[in-house]
């Protein structure tokens, strides 16, 4: 018995050095945590801007005062490649970097106009710490100003427009944000619409103590053609019709007007989209059907729901045809119609693209919209309809 106890003690002493421990442990505050990266191209060189969080502003510390220090710091570095710029950045920081918390990637128009701009994705897909779920944006403004813009109310960029843009999209669906993995998959599809949400600085909406405050907002898209070349920036007004062919649309508003007079507004959600096509010789005619439901948010007269349905259908069709016409001007299919041919008959699709390129004409599209509106439950009429089950 004494021998067994002695043997166990020897084994424990011999094996203990082989056990793993916390020898390589690093304190949380001994690292820097980038939240967003912006990439520009100036004079043939890549310029990388890195937004690093100030964890003291992010944490809820009792007794701390907002505004004691900025919520983030922005550093920049340049190089002939993005990796070279990253290593120049490493030489300028006082601590090691943890890239696992990068939440946003901002690409400038200068970069997108370079034919080899997609090489930027190499470092984000090869380096193990970067995640594929990063949000991707474009901008026509200074990337340093974009990353230096602090959010209103909160002091940390974690709560800014690039921190969690999908929360805003669920409330008002106009410009749909995109993650890196979805963008890369989209760029590899020849018939998809290649769009990158564009972010800008808003200097007129917010104020505090009679002082204007800046904030970030989505203002449109950067448009790429099937060769992934930069075509143009589309404003929110120019791209508003694309929301009706977006199956992810969560909640959007539509003004109801007739003969120049505003009759009210409606909240619409979750459109059902069906796209078909008919071959007419070597040409194609598309049939786009959109069915959507919603509620009347504002109502300024006694027009019936059937009349408001018709007005909404006419307005939605008008927006769809406008964005279709804008796409023809840019030689791009903004509604994603060609993707239907590519999925159903890829051989015929390749035959058409080799001969004609973009095979859309001004008369290639027929549109049919069906809208079903209900009264808001908080109105007297809506309450009666609800109670009667109609």
Explain the overall architecture.
- With 390 residues, the chain is of the alpha/beta class.
- The protein folds into 2 domains: 207 residues, no CATH class; 140 residues, GMP Synthetase, Chain A, domain 3.
- It has 13 helices and 15 strands.
- The strands form 4 sheets. The chain has a 6-stranded mixed β-sheet.
- Strand 2 and strand 3 form a beta hairpin.
- Helix 11 crosses helix 12.
- The longest helix has 26 residues.
- The N and C termini lie far apart (86 Å).
- The C terminus is likely disordered.
- It is a lipid-anchor.
- It is found in: Membrane.
- Keywords: Germination, Lipoprotein, Membrane, Palmitate, Signal.
Give the structure's gist in a few sentences.
By secondary structure, the protein is an alpha/beta fold. It is 30% helix and 34% strand.
């Amino acid at each position: 018995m004494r021998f067994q106890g002695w043997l166990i003690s020897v084994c424990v002493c011999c094996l203990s050095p082989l056990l793993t421990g916390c020898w390589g442990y690093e304190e949380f505050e001994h690292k820097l945590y980038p939240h967003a990266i912006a990439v520009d191209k100036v004079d043939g060189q890549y310029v990388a801007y890195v937004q690093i969080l100030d964890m003291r502003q992010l944490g809820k510390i009792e007794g701390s005062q907002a505004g004691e220090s900025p919520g983030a710091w922005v550093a920049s570095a340049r190089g002939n490649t993005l990796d070279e710029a990253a290593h120049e950045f490493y030489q300028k920081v006082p601590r090691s970097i943890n890239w696992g918390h990068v939440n946003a990637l901002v690409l400038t128009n200068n970069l997108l106009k370079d034919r080899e701009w997609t090489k930027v994705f190499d470092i984000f897909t090869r380096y193990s710490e970067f995640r594929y779920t990063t949000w991707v944006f474009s901008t026509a403004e200074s990337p340093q100003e974009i990353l230096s813009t602090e959010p209103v109310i909160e002091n940390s960029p974690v709560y800014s427009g690039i921190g969690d843009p999908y929360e805003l999209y669920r409330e008002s669906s106009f410009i749909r944000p995109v993650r890196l993995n979805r963008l890369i998959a989209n760029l590899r599809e020849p018939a998809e619409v290649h769009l990158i949400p564009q972010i800008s600085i808003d200097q007129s909406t917010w104020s505090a103590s009679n002082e204007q405050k800046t904030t970030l907002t989505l203002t449109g898209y950067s448009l790429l053609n099937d060769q992934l070349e930069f075509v143009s920036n589309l404003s929110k007004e120019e791209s508003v019709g694309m929301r009706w062919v977006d199956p992810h649309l969560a909640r959007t508003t539509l003004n109801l007007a007739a003969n120049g007079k505003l009759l009210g507004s409606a909240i619409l959600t979750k459109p059902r989209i069906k796209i078909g096509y008919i071959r007419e010789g070597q040409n194609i005619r598309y049939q786009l059907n959109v069915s959507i439901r919603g509620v009347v948010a504002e109502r300024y007269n006694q027009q019936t729901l059937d009349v408001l349905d018709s007005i909404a259908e006419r307005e939605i069709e008008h927006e769809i045809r406008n964005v279709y016409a804008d796409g023809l001007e840019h030689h791009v299919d903004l509604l994603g119609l060609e993707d239907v041919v590519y999925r159903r008959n890829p051989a015929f699709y390749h035959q058409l693209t080799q001969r004609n390129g973009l095979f859309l004409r001004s008369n290639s599209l027929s549109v049919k919209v069906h809208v079903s509106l209900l009264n808001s439950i908080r109105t007297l009429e809506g309450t009666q309809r609800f109670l009667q089950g109609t």
